[in-house]
Amino acid sequence: MNYVVGSRYPKPGEKVLIVQKKDYSSGKLTEGVVKDVLTSKQFHPRGHKVRLANGIIGRVQRFADDNSAQTTEDEPTKPIENEKFLPSEDDLV
User: Fold this and answer.
1) Residue 21: how many CB atoms within 10 A of its CB?
2) Are 49 and 38 spatial neighbours (Cβ–Cβ below 8 Å)?
3) Rounded to whole angstroms, what are the CA distances from 82 to 1, 27, 72, 85?
4) Are the beta carbons of 62 and 9 closer than 8 angstroms?
5) Do the Cβ atoms of 30 and 47 come closer than 8 Å?
6) pLDDT tens-digit profile of 26-35?
7) Based on the number of CB atoms within 10 Å of its own CB, is 14 exposed (0-12), middle (13-18) or buried (19 or more)?
8) Which residues contact 82 (CB under 8 A, 6 or more apart)?
9) Burial of 83 (C-beta count, 10 Å sphere; 0-12/13-18/19+)
10) Spatial contact of 16 and 34, defined as CB atoms under 8 Å apart
11) 84 burial via Cβ count (<10 Å: 0-12, 13-18, 19+)
12) What does pTM read for this prediction?
């Protein structure tokens, strides 16, 4: 199953990979469990904004249960390259 960023609405309790605002330029992903979904729209082109159980806030880039997010021991999770994460209007204060 290929996940298109922003097409699947996250639910509390789901395991996801997010990009934090500070990591937009590097594309480093952080894994965690969704505590709250902060985006109300069913689709968001840059990924739904969520708060993880540990308090970290970021935009969902992958779901851990998707085949695209699963890796073997030979393939460590790598940051997404060649893709810039630009802040949206709701990220700017």
Assistant:
1) 12
2) yes
3) 22, 9, 23, 10
4) no
5) no
6) 989 999 999 9
7) middle
8) none
9) exposed
10) yes
11) exposed
12) 0.68
The identity of residue 71, as a single letter, is T
Q: Write the single-letter amino acid at 92.
A: L
Instruction: Strands of 1-93 (E only): list them.
Output: 15-19, 29-37, 49-52, 57-63
Domain ranges across the chain: 15-67
Q: In which band, very low, low, confident or very high, does the pLDDT at 57 lie, cut at 50, 70 and 90?
A: very high
Tokens 């993880």, located at residue = 52
From first CA to last CA, the distance across the chain in angstroms is 35
What CA–CA distance (Å, rounded) separates 85 from 65? 23
